[in-house]
C-alpha cells in the first residue's frame, strides 16, 4: 500500500504494542509536547515580523501584552503539560522551583523537565533555537511530586529529546529504543518520520566550543581543544570549527555530521564554576539522546548520565558527541 508518512503517535503506538506494560501515558505526554512545540513554532516563525507589524512595545494589535518568546514558550509548555493528565509536576529552566499540577486537574506519575527556548540569545538574529525535554517516572509515594523526584541520575530518564526550530522544524527523541527524527510538514501540521534510527559517527570532523573563553580555561582544556585542532588526532588533520551558540543546534549538527561539542568549566564567572550548561534540562536529555545514537557524553571525567543532580539548576561541564572524540577529550582531561 502507498505510504502517506508515519506520525509520532503512530510510531509510539507501534513501540507501545511491543511493550505489554505500556499504558499510553507517555504517548499522551509526547502528544501534548508536540502540540506545545507547534504553538511555539508558530510564534518563532513570526518573530522577525514583529517590528514590521508594529507589535513591539508593551501591547500588540490585539491589545494583548507582547511577551518575550522564551517567556511565551515557557508559559505554553507549563499550561499544556499541566493539562496532560499524566504528570505530577514540571521543572523549567525559567523557574526556580518545581511547579506542581493544581489540585483541580488530573495528575499522573510522570514528571517533565524542559528548557523552553534554548539558545534564546539567537532569537533576535534569526538563528536556530530549540526546546529540550526530559521525562522521568515519579519515585516518591503518593500523588504529589517532591523536588527529590527531579534530583535524579540521567540514566533513569524514560524519554528525552528536543524540537529544533530551524530551516525546518524537527523533533528528535528517544524512549530508550534508538533515536528517531521527525520533520514538521507545515502543509498538514504533522511531524512525520524522516530520520528513523539515527546513529552518530564514531569519530567526527567538527569541534564546537566557544573559543573566546580560552583565557578562562585551565591547561587540560586547552590541551583537549588543541588535540582537535592538530593533525595528531583520529582524523589525521584539524577538525572543522563550528559554533552556533544554541546548544540544541550545535548538538543537532554534530549528531548528524559527527563531532564533539564542549562547554567546559571555566573561570569566566565565579558564580558558574562548572560552566554555563545545566545538568537536568540541557546536559542529561541530550546525553540520553547521544548515547542512544551510539555516541557519548561526559563532564570531562565521568559519564553525564551517572551524575545525580544535587539541585534543580545545577550546572555541569559538557563534552558530548561522537564516541571516540568524547573518549579522547575525557582521556586528555583526566591525564
Ligand atoms: P540559554 O538556555 O539561556 O539559551 O543558554 C544556554 C546556551 C546554549 O544554548 C549554548 O550552548 C550556550 O548557552 C552558549 O553559551 P556562550 O554564549 O557562553 O557560548
Ligand atoms: Mg538552554
Write down the CATH class of the largest domain.
Alpha Beta
Instruction: Please give the alpha-carbon distance between the first and last residues.
Output: 57 Å
Q: From the alpha-carbon coordinates, what is the Rg to the nearest angstrom?
A: 20 Å
Record field, number of beta strands: 13
Strand content: 15-25%
- Give the neighbour order of strands across the main sheet: 2-1-3-4-5-6-7-8
Any guess at the CATH architecture of the largest domain? Answer: 2-Layer Sandwich
Mean pLDDT: 91
Structural category is alpha+beta
Low-confidence stretches: 52-56, 58-66
- What is the name of the CATH superfamily of the largest domain? Fructose-1,6-Bisphosphatase, subunit A, domain 1
Main beta-sheet annotation: 8 strands, mixed
The structural domain count equals 2
Q: What is the CATH third-level topology name of the largest domain?
A: Fructose-1,6-Bisphosphatase, Chain A, domain 1
List ligands, each type once: 2,5-anhydro-1,6-di-O-phosphono-D-mannitol, magnesium ion
Shape: globular
Query: How do the helices and strands follow one another from N- to C-terminus?
Result: HHHEEEEHEEEEEHEHEHEEH
Helicity range of the residues? Answer: 25-40%
Summarize the structure.
This protein is an alpha+beta fold. It contains 8 helices and 13 strands.
Task: Describe the model.
Helices cover 30% and strands 20% of the residues. The protein has helices spanning 8-18, 25-46, 69-82, 147-150, 219-229, 247-257, 279-292, 323-334, and strands at residues 87-92, 99-100, 110-118, 129-137, 159-165, 169-174, 179-185, 190-195, 206-208, 240-241, 260-263, 296-298, 318-321. Helix 5 runs antiparallel to helix 8. The longest helix is centred in the N-terminal third of the chain and has 22 residues, at 25-46. The chain is globular. The model is unreliable at 52-56 and 58-66 (pLDDT under 50). The protein binds 2,5-anhydro-1,6-di-O-phosphono-D-mannitol and magnesium ion. Magnesium ion is lined by residues 93, 115, 118, 247, 282. Magnesium ion (MG) binds at residues 93, 115, 118, 247, 282.
Amino acid at each position: 500500500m502507498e505510504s502517506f508518512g508515519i506520525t509520532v503517535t503512530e510510531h509510539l503506538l507501534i513501540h507501545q504494542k511491543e511493550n505489554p506494560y505500556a499504558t499510553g501515558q507517555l504517548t499522551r505526554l509526547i502528544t501534548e509536547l508536540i502540540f506545545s512545540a507547534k504553538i511555539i513554532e508558530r510564534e518563532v516563525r513570526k518573530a522577525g515580523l514583529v517590528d514590521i507589524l508594529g507589535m513591539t512595545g508593551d501591547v500588540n494589535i490585539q491589545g494583548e501584552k507582547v511577551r518575550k518568546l522564551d517567556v511565551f514558550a515557557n508559559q505554553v509548555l507549563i499550561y499544556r503539560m499541566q493539562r496532560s493528565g499524566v504528570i505530577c509536576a514540571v521543572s523549567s529552566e525559567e523557574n526556580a522551583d518545581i511547579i506542581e499540577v493544581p489540585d483541580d486537574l488530573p495528575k499522573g506519575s510522570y514528571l517533565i523537565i524542559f528548557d523552553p527556548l534554548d539558545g534564546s540569545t539567537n532569537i533576535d538574529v534569526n538563528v536556530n533555537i530549540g526546546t529540550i525535554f526530559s521525562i522521568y517516572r515519579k519515585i516518591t509515594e503518593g500523588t504529589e511530586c517532591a523536588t527529590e523526584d527531579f534530583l535524579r541520575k540521567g540514566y533513569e530518564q524514560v524519554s528525552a529529546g528536543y524540537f529544533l526550530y530551524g530551516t525546518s522544524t524537527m523533533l528528535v527523541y528517544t524512549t530508550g529504543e534508538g533515536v528517531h527524527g521527525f520533520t514538521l510538514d507545515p502543509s498538514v501540521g504533522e511531524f512525520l518520520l524522516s530520520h528513523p534510527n539515527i546513529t552518530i559517527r564514531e569519530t567526527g570532523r567538527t569541534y564546537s566550543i566557544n573559543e573566546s573563553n580560552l583565557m578562562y580555561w585551565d591547561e587540560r582544556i586547552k590541551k583537549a581543544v588543541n588535540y582537535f585542532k592538530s593533525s595528531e588526532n583520529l582524523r589525521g588533520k584539524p577538525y572543522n570549527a563550528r559554533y552556533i551558540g544554541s546548544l540544541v543546534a550545535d548538538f543537532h549538527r554534530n549528531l548528524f555530521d559527527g563531532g564533539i561539542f564542549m562547554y567546559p568549566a571555566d573561570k569566566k564567572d565565579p558564580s558558574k564554576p562548572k560552566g554555563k550548561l545545566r545538568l537536568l534540562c540541557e546536559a542529561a536529555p541530550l546525553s540520553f539522546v547521544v548515547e542512544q545514537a551510539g555516541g557519548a557524553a561526559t563532564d570531562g571525567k565521568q559519564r553525564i548520565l551517572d551524575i545525580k543532580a544535587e539541585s534543580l539548576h545545577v550546572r555541569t561541564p559538557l563534552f558530548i558527541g561522537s564516541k571516540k572524540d568524547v573518549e579522547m577529550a575525557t582521556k586528555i582531561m583526566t591525564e
